[in-house]
């Protein structure tokens, strides 16, 4: 999806909630996941996860071009 729409302004940011970076890297190994990847080391106990009520993964957030949150907690 990102490859198809990247020239229309679509950007993918993946926020990983694994407890450590080794687990995150192991999960991503061999997957072609374009975009920016961020690791929150506090995982599901992070302020980010608590703020948005993340209970299931993956969770999708839709933002407009200015970065305003349009929808969140859409599970895959």
What this model shows, in words?
The chain is built from three helices and four strands. The chain is an alpha+beta fold and 76 residues long. A two-stranded parallel sheet has the order 1-2. The chain has a two-stranded antiparallel sheet with strand order 3-4. Strand 1 (13-16), helix 2 and strand 2 (36-39) form a beta-alpha-beta unit. It is flat, with a radius of gyration of 13 Å. The two termini are 14 Å apart.
Summarize the structure.
The chain is of the alpha+beta class. The chain has helices at 2-5, 21-28, 47-52; strands spanning 13-16, 36-39, 59-63, 69-75. The strands form 2 sheets. Strands 1-2 form a two-stranded parallel sheet. A two-stranded antiparallel sheet has the order 3-4.
Question: What does the secondary structure layout of this molecule look like, with pairings?
Answer:
Blueprint: H1 2-5, E1 13-16, H2 21-28, E2 36-39, H3 47-52, E3 59-63, E4 69-75
Parallel strand pairs: 1-2
Antiparallel strand pairs: 3-4
Can you tag this structure with a few keywords?
two-stranded parallel ribbon; alpha+beta; about 80 residues; 3 helices; two-stranded antiparallel sheet
Strand line-up across the major sheet: 1-2
The rounded distance between the terminal residues' Cα atoms is 14 Å
Overall morphology: flat
Portion of residues in beta strands equals: 25-35%
Q: Which stretches are low in confidence, meaning pLDDT under 50 for 5 or more residues running?
A: none
């Amino acid at each position: 999806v990102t490859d198809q729409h990247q020239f229309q302004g679509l950007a993918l940011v993946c926020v990983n909630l694994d407890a450590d970076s080794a687990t995150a890297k192991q999960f991503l190994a061999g997957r072609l996941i374009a975009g920016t990847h961020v690791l929150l080391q506090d995982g599901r106990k992070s302020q980010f996860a608590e703020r948005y009520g993340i209970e299931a993964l993956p969770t999708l957030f839709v933002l407009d071009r200015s970065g305003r949150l349009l929808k969140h907690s859409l599970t895959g």
